[in-house]
Design brief:
The structure holds two protein chains of two kinds. By secondary structure, chain A is mainly alpha-helical. Chain A contains two helices and no strands. Chain A has helices at 2-18, 24-46. Chain A is elongated. Chain B is built from 16 helices and 13 strands. Chain B has helices at 8-16, 22-40, 48-56, 98-105, 148-155, 172-178, 213-224, 244-247, 251-268, 280-294, 301-304, 313-322, 327-347, 380-394, 422-435, 451-455, and strands at residues 43-46, 67-71, 109-114, 161-166, 181-184, 205-210, 237-240, 271-274, 353-357, 370-373, 376-379, 398-406, 409-417. In chain B, the strands form two sheets. An eleven-stranded mixed sheet of chain B has the order 1-3-2-4-6-5-12-13-9-7-8, with helices on both faces. In chain B, strand 10 (370-373) and strand 11 (376-379) form a beta hairpin. In chain B, helix 2 packs antiparallel against helix 3 and helix 10 packs across helix 14 (380-394). Chain B is globular. Classes of the chains: A mainly alpha, B alpha/beta. Chain A binds chain B through residues 10-11, 14-15, 18-23, 25-30, 33-34, 36-37, 40-41, 43-45, 47, 49, 52-55, 58-64, and chain B through 186-189, 202, 279, 282, 285-286, 288-289, 301-302, 304-305, 313-314, 316-318, 320-321, 323-326, 328-329, 331-339, 341-342, 344-345, 348, 379, 382, 394-395, 418-420.
Chain lengths: 67, 456
């Protein structure tokens, strides 16, 4: 429950911390974006990618270099 | 038939052979825009004198005298891009962008600037500072975004070719919705100089939107600065995955794409191969996060508080939300990018192309861009990004080709190949055209049909 409350507070507290003003319509847009993005972001954060460190200076025009 | 209704390559050939006057073709394109575009809003600005100056100076290139449209994402020497918005977050100025130079050096004539979704932020094209572009197949439907105007202009046969940009599907979505062939090139291969995100973005590329693959090959070659040789795609090994991108799809789209894949395999004497490719949907989310993080370059909290009130509330809200995205997610996205690149490299050792629907449902209404999928009703953006992000995340090329209709609206298949295999994708698209007697690439939307055909 506490985690849910924190999630609901994420947008207003985040905006306040950065000093960003938002009117009601913008807040509605931000809320909708958050509802869409946040579950997917949490899913991404939970992924175990320990065996896949980022490439060093990847060249996206080519396949990854052999490790 | 007007020369303007013929393919890009036929226009170029007629001019090169002295059978057509390019000045007449330019006038015809301007007249066609004036006649048809009030219904489409695809071309937001023309500049006849500038176009005539380009024509007068046009070298003997592969596109000499051929009129094309360029997306409002690229600066021209006489016009800065507006990115479909009342305001951009970075300073822009008129100039010679890479795509402009490529077109100019090929002898092409920029006849107009194509509309686009505001700030490139949607797959629908239903929002722009110029008002939305409209889909020629049904003007109450989304044309796709963000390269909405280039696609609508080509589908409406205002021009035979247009240059778009693709950061998360922005060439492939409008190509799919408008029944065109749209190529998202391998990252870094197509002209990019002068783009306001050049040097920052790791997902955006320029690319062609045309009626068919041969025209896309010609225009892509122009943007690449090298001709792309044509082949047969013989023995094409087509990979298919079992994932949300193939399963959570409208039945008509699934059926048409499966039929097209079978036809492609039969035409090329190839084979169908099941491919294991995990995390396609999370990879799309990673692409969104990376693109949004890269878009922070010109943003600060103070800047976010000084946004132009003429920006839509959606744009203002999304810009402010960007600043809240956790840095850890960007790092994780980079890890997933590396993982997906390695997985794709392994997959392309066993197949030449991987196929799935470009978008899971046909173009939704402009007023309510929602789509019905087996899993329920979702926004078109949520649905569309799933299958598009992987190519931008990893750098591989991808092409969208028309493969049928549902309720009079185009259905599209996406083919993705290994890094640098852009020509192979065009070969495969041409093979598919042969297999289907070109009926999907030659289909015309109502407003582009000859009068007698419309009456019939």
């Amino acid at each position: 429950m506490e985690a849910l409350d924190q999630a609901a507070d994420f947008v207003p507290s985040g905006l306040a911390a950065l000093g960003i003003e938002a009117d009601e319509t913008e807040l509605a847009v931000i809320g909708a974006a958050h509802a869409t993005f946040w579950p997917a972001i949490l899913e991404l954060l939970e992924m175990d990618l320990g065996d896949n460190p980022p490439e060093r200076s990847p060249d996206l025009s080519r396949p990854p270099a052999e490790r | 038939m007007s020369l303007l209704d013929r393919p890009l390559r036929a226009q170029a050939a007629a001019i090169a052979a002295g059978e057509a006057d390019p000045a007449d073709l330019l006038d015809a394109a301007l007249a066609r825009i004036a006649e048809r575009d009030p219904a489409l809003n695809s071309v937001v600005e023309t500049f006849p004198e500038r176009s005539r100056e380009m024509l007068a100076a046009a070298p003997e290139g592969p596109l000499r005298g051929v009129p094309v449209v360029i997306k409002d994402e690229w600066p021209l020497p006489w016009r800065a891009q507006r990115f479909g918005a009342a305001e951009m977050l970075t300073e822009v100025a008129p100039g010679e962008s890479g795509p402009y130079r490529a077109l100019r050096d090929a002898g092409a004539v920029v006849v107009g600037v194509g509309n686009m979704h505001e700030l490139g932020a949607s797959s629908t094209g239903n929002l722009s500072v110029y008002g939305p572009a409209r889909n020629p197949w049904d003007t109450e439907r989304c044309p796709g975004g963000s390269s909405s105007g280039p696609a609508a202009a080509v589908a409406g046969r205002l021009v035979a070719g247009a240059v778009g940009a693709d950061g998360i599907g922005s060439i492939r979505f409008p190509a799919a919705y408008c029944g065109l062939t749209g190529l998202k090139p391998t990252y870094g291969r197509a002209a990019m100089a002068g783009h306001h995100m050049d040097g920052i973005s790791t997902t955006i590329v320029s690319g062609p939107l045309c009626a068919d693959a041969a025209d896309a090959r010609l225009l892509a070659g122009t943007l690449f600065g090298e001709q792309l040789p044509a082949g047969e795609a013989a023995g094409l090994r087509v990979g298919i995955v079992r994932d949300t991108v193939t399963d959570d799809v409208a039945p008509a789209v699934r059926d048409a794409c499966e039929e097209a894949i079978r036809a492609l395999v039969a035409e090329t004497g190839g084979e169908l191969v099941e491919v294991e490719l995990a995390d396609i949907v999370p990879a799309a989310m990673a692409t969104v996060l990376i693109a949004n993080a890269e878009g922070l370059a010109g943003l600060s909290p103070d800047r976010a508080n000084r946004l132009d009130p003429e920006l839509s509330p959606i744009a203002r809200g999304l810009i402010k939300y960007r600043l809240l995205l956790p840095a850890a997610a960007s790092v994780k996205s980079g890890q997933l990018r590396a993982a997906m690149r390695r997985r794709l490299a392994a997959a392309f050792a066993g197949v030449d192309a991987i196929a799935w629907p470009t978008v899971p449902a046909v173009a939704p209404p402009l007023e309510a861009p929602l789509v019905e999928l087996p899993s329920g009703t979702v926004t078109a953006d949520q649905a569309n990004v799933r299958g598009a992000g992987l190519a931008n995340l990893t750098g591989i090329p991808a092409i969208s080709v028309p493969v049928g209709f549902d309720g009079g609206l185009p259905i599209a298949l996406q083919l993705q190949a290994g890094w640098g295999e852009d020509a192979l994708l065009l070969d495969a698209a041409e093979a598919l055209e042969r297999a289907t007697d070109r009926r999907w690439v030659e289909a015309l939307p109502p407003l582009a049909r000859p009068a007698e055909a419309t009456e019939a």
